[in-house]
Design a protein that fits this description.
Layout: E1 4-9, E2 15-19, H1 20-26, E3 28-31, H2 38-49, E4 54-59, H3 67-71, E5 74-77, H4 83-96, E6 100-103, H5 109-124, E7 134-138, H6 141-144, H7 154-170, E8 176-182, H8 190-193, E9 198-201, H9 207-217, H10 221-228, E10 234-239, E11 243-251, H11 273-281, H12 284-290, H13 303-319, H14 327-343, H15 352-365, H16 375-387, H17 394-403, H18 412-423, H19 431-438, H20 443-455, E12 460-463, E13 469-472
Helix pairs in contact: 4-5, 5-7, 9-10, 14-15, 14-16, 16-18, 18-19
C-alpha cells in the first residue's frame, strides 16, 4: 500500500507528492494570509488521505462538514454537547478510530477555544491501547495557540495552549500528528510552530511574517520576496514528508466544499429602487413582534433594604479601616523583578507569553497587589531592562524611547541594544548582545533583522569590504558622525 498522495503540481507539471506516513512522525505547519488558499489546501490533504489514516478536524468556521457527504466523516456539533460529553466523544473517537469534524461554528469565540481544548486534551489522554495513528487538523490555529494574551480569560488561554502544545510536542508517541494552519506566524505561539518539520507557506505581505516564513524555509531575505508574490492556491513547500529543497506547488482540485459560497463578482439584482425599498420595509413591525422580548429587569430593592445596606457598609468602614497601600514600593519591586528576569540566561529565547507568565508567577509568589503591567507594557519594560537603558541618564533614555515609537514590540529589544551602543559611540554592533535580545542564535536572522530595521528607516548600516558593520541610529546624539 502506497503512503504518498499528490498534493499538487510544480510549474513544469511534475506532481508534488506528500508522504502521509512520514507526516505522522513530523507534523505540518501551513501559513498564509486570508484568501491565500489555506482551507483549500487542508481540504485537498484531507480528501487525498481519507482512505489511509483516521482524521480529526477542528473547524471553527464551519468549512469542513461537507466532507461527510463524500468521505463519511462524522460531524460533531460542538454547541450540542456539554464539556463532559465532548470529552467522552473524544475518547470514543480514539477507541473506534472514527474520522470526525468538530464543528465549532455555532459557539462564541471563547466557547470555541474551551471546547477545542477539552476535546484535544481528551484525545491526548486516551488509554495506551487506543493510541492509533490519527491526523489532527486545526484550522485558524492562532485562535487556539495565541502568541500573546488577548481578550480571552487567562484560564482559557492556559488550557488551550497546554492542549495545543501537547498535540504538537508530545502527541507523536500517542499517534497524534498535528496539522496546524494559521493566517499569521507572528500570532501563533512559537513552541507550537517550532515542532513542525514540514511547511507549506502561502502568500503573506507583512515583513515580520514573511521573514519568519523564509527563515523556516531556509531562504535568504532576497528570496523571501517570492512569498509576497505567490498567487492564490500556490505554496512554497519544504519538509521530510514533501521535499528536501523548497519547491513551489499549485494545490490540486478538491471534490467537496461549500456550494453556497460565491467566488468573484455576481450580478446585482435588477429590482427597481421603489420595489427594493418595499421589500425592506414591508411588514417590518410583524418581524419585530416575532423577536423574543428582552428579559424583565430585576425588581428594585425596597427603601428599607437600601437603608440597611448603606448603614452596614458605613459600620464596616468605621470598624475595619483599611491601611493605605504604598503603590510606589510595589511599582519599584515590579521593575526589579523585570530587571532580574531580563538578566537571566536563556530567558530571551522563550516566547513573550512564557516570559510574561514567569513574571506574573513571581509577582504572585511575593503577593504583590497593585498596578500590574499588561502584556504590551511588560514587553516594553522587559526590552528596556534587557538593553540596559537604566544605565543611561533620563534625557538619553527619553530620546531613545522617542525614536523607538514606531518599532514593533518584538523588535524593540534589538533596536534598544543598537541605540544604546550607537549613543556610546561604538562603531560595531555587538552581535551576541543583539542575538540575545532577539532570542535567536541564527546569524541569518540577525542579518535579516538589520535589513528590516534599515528598510524601516530606523537605522543606517555601513559594511566595509572586510565584513565589519557600522550601525547608526538617525536622530540620536552621541554617536560618531558619518
Amino acid at each position: 500500500m502506497t503512503t504518498s498522495i499528490t498534493i499538487g503540481h510544480e510549474a513544469t507539471g511534475k506532481p508534488v507528492l506528500f508522504d502521509i506516513e512520514e507526516l505522522l512522525a513530523t507534523r505540518l505547519l501551513v501559513q498564509g494570509n486570508s484568501g491565500s488558499g489555506k482551507s483549500h489546501l487542508l481540504r485537498r490533504l484531507i480528501e487525498e488521505s481519507a482512505g489511509m489514516v483516521q482524521q480529526v478536524v477542528i473547524d471553527p468556521e464551519g468549512d469542513f462538514p461537507s466532507l461527510a457527504e463524500e468521505f463519511g466523516h462524522v460531524v460533531i456539533d460542538g454547541s450540542a454537547y456539554s464539556p463532559a460529553e465532548i470529552e467522552a466523544l473524544a475518547r470514543r473517537i480514539r477507541e473506534h478510530r472514527a474520522s470526525v469534524v468538530l464543528d465549532l461554528d455555532g459557539l462564541e469565540v471563547e466557547q470555541q477555544i474551551r471546547c477545542a481544548a477539552q476535546f484535544l486534551t481528551a484525545l491526548f489522554d486516551a488509554p495506551r491501547e487506543h493510541w492509533y495513528p490519527v491526523l489532527v487538523v486545526v484550522d485558524e490555529a492562532q485562535m487556539f495557540a495565541p502568541a500573546v494574551a488577548g481578550e480571552i480569560a487567562e484560564d482559557t488561554r492556559r488550557m488551550t495552549l497546554s492542549a495545543m502544545t501537547n498535540l504538537m510536542c508530545r502527541g507523536r508517541k500517542r499517534g497524534l500528528a498535528g496539522v496546524v494552519a494559521t493566517q499569521r506566524l507572528a500570532k501563533l505561539a512559537k513552541n507550537v510552530a517550532a515542532e513542525a518539520s514540514n511547511f507549506l507557506m502561502g502568500r503573506t505581505f507583512l515583513d515580520i511574517d514573511m521573514v519568519r516564513a523564509a527563515d523556516l524555509l531556509g531562504m535568504e531575505r532576497r528570496q523571501a520576496e517570492r512569498i509576497r508574490e505567490l498567487e492564490r492556491g500556490h505554496f512554497l513547500a519544504l519538509g521530510p514528508a514533501i521535499t528536501r529543497l523548497p519547491v513551489a506547488v499549485k494545490i490540486g482540485p478538491v471534490k467537496t466544499g461549500l456550494k453556497a459560497r460565491a467566488e468573484g463578482l455576481m450580478a446585482l439584482p435588477d429590482t427597481a429602487p421603489a420595489d427594493m425599498a418595499d421589500l425592506l420595509t414591508r411588514d417590518l413591525a410583524s418581524d419585530v413582534s416575532k423577536a423574543p422580548p428582552p428579559p424583565a429587569p430585576p425588581p428594585a430593592p425596597r427603601v428599607e433594604e437600601m437603608e440597611d445596606s448603606i448603614a452596614r457598609a458605613e459600620e464596616r468602614q468605621l470598624d475595619d479601616p483599611r491601611p493605605s497601600v504604598d503603590t510606589s514600593a510595589i511599582v519599584s519591586r515590579i521593575a526589579e523583578i523585570i530587571a532580574e528576569l531580563a538578566a537571566e540566561e536563556g530567558i530571551a529565547f522563550q516566547s513573550a507569553s512564557a516570559q510574561y507568565q514567569t513574571f506574573l508567577t513571581r509577582c504572585r509568589r511575593e503577593r504583590l497587589i497593585g498596578p500590574m503591567p499588561d502584556m504590551q507594557g511588560f514587553r516594553r519594560k522587559f526590552a528596556i531592562a534587557g538593553a540596559g537603558l537604566a544605565e543611561l541618564d533620563e534625557a538619553t533614555q527619553a530620546q531613545i524611547m522617542h525614536l523607538s515609537g514606531m518599532v514593533d514590540d518584538d523588535l524593540l529589544g534589538p533596536f534598544l541594544v543598537i541605540a544604546k551602543a550607537a549613543h556610546a559611540g561604538e562603531t560595531e554592533v555587538d552581535e551576541d548582545a543583539l542575538a540575545r535580545s532577539y532570542g535567536t542564535s541564527s546569524p541569518g536572522r540577525i542579518r535579516r533583522l538589520l535589513d528590516h530595521l534599515e528598510r524601516q528607516g530606523l537605522i543606517v548600516v555601513r559594511e566595509d569590504f572586510g565584513g565589519s558593520r557600522t550601525v547608526m541610529v538617525p536622530g540620536l546624539e552621541g554617536q560618531p558622525a558619518e
